[in-house]
Specification:
Helix content: 25-40%
Shape: globular
Strand content: 25-35%
Structural class: alpha/beta
Number of strands: 23
Largest sheet: 7 strands, mixed
Length: 443
């Protein structure tokens, strides 16, 4: 029986990156995957979503310029768009697996259960290793309501070959606002149901309120303070019902109420790995409560955003740890983006925390709608909130809303991580006119 130095469980972006890095260290490495090689992001997550957004963005930008140089906006051909999306997603799994094999990494198909701290069963194949790294990611959460079998998920949405006349999303997170913008742009009658009146809690309320208003202007219907108790299948589709008397008929209903970690089928109790409903517990070296088992990515119980680049950062850290470095992991400021219409992005200290410590921070709220960058595109919403330290003058947080926020937020992430002050920034000459050249006026 072969024995490996490290076995990675899960071949998403984080797990695959770690396997390659360890192989480059001449370690004997195996990687196990029970579903699609490559994981959620390239197969059924951020990458296909971004492909669809290319058409949605083109339509929205054209709509903003109708009467300003354009006569009309294009119409989205959803079936053709999904066919285009499949040219990106279809090759991913086989390509990922072949790439790992070509690099000399042992690839194993199968679901995993731990037998002991040094042994797993991948289906019926026994695999032994000095160390294991769990990188199994997360999956869509389904609300426990009567008729929950009728819920579809984000995976279903991204491979939906025809846009229904009416579509309903239950939840209040990132995916809701992104998919609602897509479906609305494609011509659907869109409804969003949320159990309270505060979606996207991590973002500044003022920005969220603006985003909601913009979606409403585009025809999206919001139903706040509604707890769905059952879903009934009928001749016209589905009826969503609450105990308080709410009722809504829809053609399709998607549960977009967050994700849950893929840690419940690994038999972690057999090897003393502790976990919560948020994921696997690790220390500041990404080590679980079993000393030779580590974990990374969306399967973790952590405060950092569960994003693909964060998984890659953790993979890089573990590769260095296994090569002999002993430092605890230290996360930089991590930008997060809601790919809605417009984009909503934030990084660093939140507006809410800064407002609670006004003696320490300066909060600058800017309406950018009239700035050249946004006015030339006739964007209806462009705002920025920039937070700086009163002690050092360095930028420590930013919240952005515009069609360019997903790009601009990265400059703020660099500024925060390098502790740049406005004076530092003035030493750089940016190409003009670009979103980057606005930085010297924003900080």
């Amino acid at each position: 029986m072969d024995k490996f130095d490290v076995v990675v469980i899960g071949a998403g972006p984080g797990g695959s990156a770690l396997a390659y890095a360890l192989k480059a260290q001449n370690k004997k490495v195996a990687i196990v995957e029970e579903n699609l090689w490559g994981g959620t992001c390239p197969n059924r997550g951020c990458d296909p979503k971004k492909v669809i957004l290319a058409a949605v963005d083109a339509r929205r930008r054209a709509q903003n310029l109708v009467g300003k140089g354009l006569q009309s906006a294009p119409v989205i051909d959803w079936p053709a768009l999904i066919s285009f999306e499949k040219t990106f997603t279809d090759p991913v799994s086989d390509g990922t697996k072949k790439g790992l094999q070509t690099a000399g990494i042992t690839v194993i198909d199968g679901s995993v259960k731990f037998v002991d701290k040094h042994t797993i069963l991948a289906d019926q194949t026994k695999v032994v290793a000095d160390k294991f790294v769990i990188a199994t990611g997360a999956r869509p959460k389904l609300l426990d309501v009567d008729g929950k079998r009728y819920f579809e998920t984000s995976t279903d949405f991204l491979k939906m070959t025809a846009m229904p006349h009416s579509i309903t999303f239950v939840g209040g997170g990132y995916i809701v606002f992104e998919f609602a913008a897509m479906a609305s742009a494609a011509g659907a009658d869109v409804h969003i149901i949320h159990h309270n009146d505060r979606p996207l809690k991590a973002f500044a309320k003022a920005d969220v309120d603006r985003l909601i208003a913009q979606l409403e202007d585009n025809g999206v219907h919001f139903h706040f303070g509604v707890d769905i108790s059952r879903i009934e299948n009928n001749a016209d589709g589905y009826e969503l019902v609450s105990a308080q008397g709410f009722s809504l008929q829809t053609d399709k209903v998607f549960c977009t109420a967050g994700r849950i970690p893929n840690d419940d089928t690994l038999a972690l109790d057999k090897v003393g790995v502790e976990f919560s409903n948020r994921g696997i517990k690790v220390n500041d070296h990404l080590q679980t409560t079993s000393e030779n088992i580590f974990a990374l990515g969306d399967v973790l119980d952590k405060s950092q955003p569960k994003l693909t680049p964060v998984s890659g950062f953790e993979a890089q850290y573990l590769a260095e740890l296994f090569a002999g470095q002993t430092q605890a992991i230290k996360y930089p400021a991590i930008p997060t983006v809601v790919y809605g219409t417009p984009r909503l992005a934030m990084v660093g200290l939140s507006v809410e925390k800064a407002e609670a410590q006004k003696d320490n921070y300066t909060i600058q709220n800017l309406d950018l709608t009239g700035w050249f960058t946004y006015h030339r595109l006739n964007e209806p919403l462009a705002y920025a909130t920039v937070i700086t330290s009163k002690k050092t003058g360095a930028v420590v947080g930013a919240s952005l809303m515009s069609g360019e926020a997903d790009e601009l937020i990265n400059y703020f992430a660099m500024a925060i991580n390098r502790q740049l002050t406005p004076e530092n920034l003035k030493q750089t000459i940016f190409a003009y006119p670009t979103t980057a050249s606005d930085l010297t006026y924003l900080m």
